[in-house]
Amino acid sequence: MNRVQRRAHCEGSFPFRFRVAALKSAERNTLGLALGQLAVRAGEIVMGIYRRSPSVAIKRDASPVTEADLAAETIIIEGLGMLLPGLPVVSEECPQSQIAPPGDAFVLVDPLDGTREFVSGRDEFTINIALIVEGRPVAGAVYAPSLDELWYAGSESFRLSVAPGVQIAADSPVVRVRVRQPLADSFVVLISRSHRDPATEDFLDRLSLKNRRPMGSSLKFCRIAQGDADLYVRLAPTHEWDTAAGDAILSAAGGLVLDPSGVPLRYGKAKSGFLHEGFVALGGFRPSWDWDDVRLSS
Question: Which of 78, 194, 211, 231 would you call most buried, defined as having the most Cβ atoms within 10 angstroms of its Cβ?
Fold first, then answer.
């Protein structure tokens, strides 16, 4: 993709016709599945590149980007133009999309979350798409193409197995997922495999949370949503496209994704570069700690 094509790809616009704010519960679930199908489509080209040695470039923020990121983003943005015509799309690999405030309704896209895992040959990478309305995700999808696992959410959260590029059938076996109520002797904390930070480590140490499992990408939100773990803390700055789809999945499964002051994450913060200061993702666990401790760590 040359520079002119890239700019057109990022800046494409459509007349606004979709009344997103009027979505009903069942329609939100249907939209979550549609976003999931789009992620599955993108997963086919991602896996084609994964099976050979992908080319890697380093961005200005020192993070890696591959041809898979860009190819998946192209498919997703084109698909969103048909699925949600007129909605602004803010995507990780489109800097032009990150300049102006996107408005009350927009889509956040991370075409390849866990690029370091992807480059290293680990399976823990995902494709993330989320619809944001008035600062919160109302539908979303997380697809792990190397694991054939899709999670999607609207008013509820679901999981199904689907191979990259496969059309999801109407009778596909779909499982509703819910967070668990943890037991003291089986409390599981998920931590980032590639993005460790001292504030998070210090916070977990002070709470004596020892059962920590490293994991890449937004899979951590999904594992908590389906009851495999209880807590995920990251107190370093994180971009909104890294959390939005996982937030949609976990919140609709009965969990919470909170900022360091203890309130739900807000999305659309263009002035801050679409950054969170940090977050805490909870399953059925409701902490008794003082939220000032979290703020001090962050």
Answer: 231
